[in-house]
């Protein structure tokens, strides 16, 4: 399995803290986007090094074959969803140029995700290359609605508006439109429900493309992608699009699968060790995060792939067992669950690739899980991969898999995210510090009301204040009195309790003198807390990108372009 590249050292694995950008119009980019062109050039030089071997062949040759096959599939799929809008280059123009890759689930996501796809296109254009968006359709479709703002600025809420009926959990690639009428009326229902619109949202421009696609295909992925991709291409931010399900139907992917599952035991050990290190360094206690360990059940070894049969909803974990010159494949480690046999006799694994192809023809779907998605994309496909925050965290494990399992240097990647508030209403200027100052003042009025009395109030309750001071002085005297004063513990306790009770009574009487002031402050605190609660929605970064007006998106794109050409200020 290993190439000839010798890993002399591995970067020190340190605990990473990647924070979501909080303020409107802010970006997270690691490293700076201005470093991307240089990084892209270095990566292409790295991948071309003749001493780097993968699967016993030069890495450059394996990558060339894989990217050519997948780019052909991407050109075909992108042409299908763009329809008459397609103005795509030929495969001959793409094979020699830089390829920048990103990916996400096909949901109607927020701008912090969308910014990866826009940046992929902008960077590809600057490098005279091509961008590819991998649609992660092997993940579960767990929502068919978006949140839309409602209520008032002072008391905002959000409502869920569905673009299709809810369904039992199933992979996105199997999700079909269940209610064409609901799907068709989605944009109108959003427009009618959302009273805070500040100009028409993008949904008005992109949903007609989704509806047009629904006349050709009832697959949700195709329709949602058609809406977004057509809009992007018309505005100059288009990438090639390809569902991961189609990537997994290429022979390049099947060859990758063959090599991994034929080394399943070694891969599992390497994988679990890297995951354990990640948990220890990042202080993660959950055994399910960032990914579960791969299991061994007797002679069956779990591999990092999903497998399920067409027509079923539940994904199974792929287990393999070596049996003579074959690998047995199962969705569960039992003899009754065997779904196929993979021959391992041919040196070039062509027979195994053919067997996996035949498995697919019988309706079995073999798909990547999170780590193998980016392992394949970063190592065999793209010259540069752009991650979001979540992917960047778990791909620290992928780096170790590449260096330890394949004995290859791990390709670098970019991490990118952004925050953009909907421009429907300005947030309130209140902060958490404002609320805490009011709480502290109210507490001090309760505990030390004499500090907040007016001169007139002080004269009216002079005797109470004097008695309070006398009791406090007496308590201090008792604590410091000489041990020679003989007072039994019981007597001292009774006197102390009586003193405490009298102090409470006096404090309550004094506090009543500031009751009006406390009420005013409490009213102010309640108002601040209400405005802070409103800000949590007014400042939310989770609203779908399709709700934003076009001018706000153009401003975000201009800011991205500026980040690409200008180094960050120190």
Structural description of this entry:
It is built from 20 helices and 16 strands. With 570 residues, it is α/β, with parallel strands linked by helices. It has a domain at 434-472 and 498-538. It has a six-stranded mixed sheet. Strands 9, 10, 11, 12, 13 and 14 form a six-stranded antiparallel sheet that branches. A two-stranded antiparallel sheet has the order 2-3. Strand 15 (384-387), helix 14 (389-405) and strand 16 (413-419) form a beta-alpha-beta unit.
What's the gist of this structure?
The chain contains 20 helices and 16 strands. The chain has 570 residues and is an alpha/beta fold.
* Order of adjacent strands in the largest pleated sheet: 1-16-15-4-5-8
Distance between the first and last residues' Cα = 44 Å
Poorly predicted residue ranges: 1-8
How much is the radius of gyration in Å? Answer: 32 Å
**Total helical elements:** 20
Task: Report the helical percentage.
Answer: 40-55%
Structural class: alpha/beta
The profile of the biggest β sheet is: 6 strands, mixed
What is the multimeric organization of the chains shown?
A: single chain
- Mean pLDDT rating: 88
Kindly state the number of beta strands. 16
Shape: globular
Strand content: 15-25%
């Amino acid at each position: 399995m290993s190439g000839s590249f010798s890993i002399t050292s591995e970067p020190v694995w340190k605990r990473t803290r990647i924070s979501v950008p909080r303020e409107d119009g802010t970006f997270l980019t690691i490293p700076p986007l201005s470093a991307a062109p240089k990084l892209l050039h270095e990566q292409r030089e790295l991948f071309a090094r003749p001493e780097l071997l993968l699967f016993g062949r030069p890495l450059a040759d394996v990558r060339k074959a894989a990217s050519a096959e997948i780019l052909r599939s991407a050109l075909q799929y992108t042409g299908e969803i763009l329809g008459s809008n397609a103005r795509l280059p030929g495969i001959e123009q793409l094979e020699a140029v830089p390829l920048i890759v990103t990916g996400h689930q096909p949901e109607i996501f927020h701008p912090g995700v969308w910014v990866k796809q826009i940046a992929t296109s902008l960077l590809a254009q600057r490098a005279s290359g091509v961008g590819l968006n991998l649609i992660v359709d092997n993940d579960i479709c767990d929502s068919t609605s978006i949140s839309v703002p409602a209520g008032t600025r002072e008391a905002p809420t959000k409502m869920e508006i569905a673009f299709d009926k809810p369904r039992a959990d199933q992979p996105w690639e199997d999700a079909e439109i269940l209610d064409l009428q609901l799907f068709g009326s989605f944009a109108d229902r959003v427009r009618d429900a959302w009273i805070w619109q500040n100009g028409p949202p993008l949904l008005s421009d992109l949903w007609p493309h989704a509806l047009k696609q629904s006349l050709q295909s009832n697959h949700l992925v195709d329709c949602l992608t058609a809406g977004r991709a057509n809009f992007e291409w018309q505005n100059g931010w288009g990438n090639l699009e390809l569902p991961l399900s189609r990537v997994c139907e290429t022979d390049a992917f099947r060859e990758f699968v063959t090599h991994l599952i034929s080394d399943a035991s070694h891969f599992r050990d390497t994988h679990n060790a890297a995951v354990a290190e990640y948990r220890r360094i990042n202080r993660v206690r959950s055994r399910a995060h960032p990914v579960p360990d791969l299991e061994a059940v007797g002679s069956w070894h779990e591999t990092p792939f999903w497998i399920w049969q067409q027509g079923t909803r539940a994904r199974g974990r792929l287990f393999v067992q070596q049996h003579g010159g074959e690998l047995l494949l199962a969705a569960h480690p039992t003899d009754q669950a065997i779904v196929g046999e993979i021959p391992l006799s041919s040196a070039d694994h062509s027979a195994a690739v053919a067997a996996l192809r035949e498995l697919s023809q019988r309706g079995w779907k073999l798909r990547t899980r999170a780590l193998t998605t980016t392992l394949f994309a970063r190592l065999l496909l793209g010259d540069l991969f752009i991650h979001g925050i979540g992917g960047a965290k778990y791909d620290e494990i992928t780096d170790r898999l590449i260096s330890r399992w394949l004995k290859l240097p791990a390709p670098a990647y970019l991490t990118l995210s952004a925050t953009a508030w909907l421009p429907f209403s300005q947030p309130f200027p209140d902060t958490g510090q404002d609320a805490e100052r009011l709480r502290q003042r109210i507490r001090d009025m309760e505990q030390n009301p004499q500090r907040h009395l007016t001169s007139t109030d002080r004269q009216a309750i002079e005797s109470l204040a004097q008695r309070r001071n006398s009791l406090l002085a007496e308590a201090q005297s008792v604590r410091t009195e000489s041990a020679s004063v003989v007072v039994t513990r019981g007597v001292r306790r009774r006197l102390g309790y009586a003193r405490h009770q009298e102090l409470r009574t006096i404090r309550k009487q004094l506090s009543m003198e500031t009751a009006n002031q406390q009420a005013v402050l409490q009213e102010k605190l309640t108002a601040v807390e209400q405005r802070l609660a409103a800000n949590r929605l007014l400042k939310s970064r989770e609203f779908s990108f399709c709700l934003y007006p076009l001018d706000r998106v153009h401003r975000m794109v201009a800011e991205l372009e500026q980040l690409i050409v200008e180094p960050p200020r120190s």
